Structure formats: C-alpha cells, structure tokens
Amino acid sequence: MVARVKARRQGSPSEHDNGRPVFQLHLLMPELPEVEVTRLSFAGRIAGARIESAWLGKPLRWPLGIDPGALRGQTVQRVRRRGKYLLLDLDAGLLLIHLGMSGSLAFATVLPPAGMHDHFELATSHGCLRLHDPRRFGAVVWAGSEADPVARKLLGRLGVEPLGDAFDPLAFWQALRARRAAIKQVLLAGDIVVGVGNIYASEALFAAGIRPTLSAARLSRVRSERLHGAIRGVLTRALEQGGSTLRDFSSAEGKTGYFQLEAMVYDRAGQPCRVCGSTILSLRQGQRSTYYCPQCQTA
Ligand SMILES: [Zn+2]
Description:
Blueprint: E1 15-17, E2 20-22, H1 32-46, E3 49-56, E4 75-76, E5 78-82, E6 85-89, E7 94-98, E8 104-108, E9 118-124, E10 127-132, E11 139-143, H2 149-155, H3 169-177, H4 183-189, H5 198-208, H6 221-249, E12 281-285, E13 288-292
Antiparallel strand pairs: 1-2, 3-4, 3-9, 5-6, 6-7, 7-11, 8-10, 9-10, 12-13
Helix pairs in contact: 1-6, 3-6, 5-6
Bound molecules: zinc ion.
C-alpha cells in the first residue's frame, strides 16, 4: 500500500489560535484510526481539567441524557477509546462521544466563535472541547457508568479491539466459522472485531486476497490468519500516517486532520489494480459499496 497521506483540507489556514493555524477540514467518515488519532490529539491535554460549563446546540443523534449544568465542577480524568467511541471518564459517570458520519473534535485554549455546525462544547480549565458535525449523526451521551443501560446499549455488543491482544487469530477463525454471511458484512457488523469500517474492511480483504462476498464460514484457517494480519496491518499503517498527519498538518491547539492511506481498492471502481492491472470492480453489500480486484481476490 502506498503510504501517501491526503491531509484533507479545504483551502489554506483560515483562522488562527494563539498564532497557530486552525485548518478547515474536508470531512470524511471517521473510522477507528481517525478516532484514535483524534483521541491522541487532546487526551493528554484535557486530563485533569475541571469542567466549567457544557453547551448543547442542535440535537444530535442521541440525547445527552443529563442537564448540561450538572457536568459543571466534574473533572475529566482520562480519555479512552472503545471501537469508534471516545469515553471521557469524569469523577462521576462518563461522556461517550461518537463522531458519526461527519463529526470532528477541536480542543484549544481559545476557539473561534461557534459556527452553525458546532453542536456541543465542553469548557474546561485546560481548554474548550468542541464537536463540529454538519450531518449530526454524531452524539455525546452521558452515562453514570459503563454498566448503565445507556452505555451497555452503545458499547455492549462491540467485538474485540483489532489492535489489542484479545484479537487472537485462532479465536477470530473460530468466530468466523459460525457465520454464513459474507466476510465483508461480518467484519462491518463489528461484533467479532470492532472498528473495521468500510474502507479498512475493503483494503484488508484485498491485502489478504479474499473476495468480499465469500461466506465467513468458508475461510480456511490459513486465509483467516492472513486476514487477521491484514486487518492489523492496514489499521496500524493508517494510525502511523495519522500520527504524522497530526504532527505535520493539524494545529496542536486545534482541529485534528483526518487522513487516509492511498487506497488499493476502496473507491477505485473502474481503475486499474495497483498490483495486477485488472479493473477494480464494485458491488453493493447491504447498504454499502464494496470494491475488489477480481484477479487478486480469488479466495
Ligand atoms: Zn489485482
């Protein structure tokens, strides 16, 4: 895979925060690496901050579930990630943030005035955290604990983390053997392994040479292990690129740059395969477009 970064920006730095540029970002759907890079962009700086106020704009995908005023005085202890959720642990309870289709977070000591697509803000003693989400499929949800029904509903069915130790090749193969659905659909479902979205599922299947429509149950152990390695590989490379994008292009005080590895198959229908030259094909699986090379992905 060509490790070229597309730092998706619109135009040049348009605003400044403490003399540092704040980029206006082109928005694409955040997947696990983007969410993790977002977490890394502010987790260290917000840890230990006291919440001074919380503000809600237009309704998001799910309600906050608490009076924003009740968050005042709480401390943000740390920021974790589970799948594509960011978890802000407070003194009492936690905030779950999902970026949806188009969300992005900014954290800075001073932010420009809120715009029409800014819908949540947490003013803290260390700076202001703001959710920008034009399509409003994102959400900020408060839960008393991870055992709360609200949190369990969002987090309870998530599979293992693809980059964690619990993502084990043998357990992965055994879980796949119980599924008759197409392997791509099984990956997207997220209940075996979490956070492998449309882009990275397509890319991992290409890297492993597996046709997206193959029944998960029919994957041999060898091919399943190859897919396991490919999933880790594409996500790890995206995270590495995201880290460098973060250093190179985003304001350390402001918005995070999303990034995307140059795809081998994703969104490349009709173009030649970068490996064999065959024409990349696309098909619909569920509601999503799938891209594959008919020559390289024969299993
Ligand atoms: Zn090919």
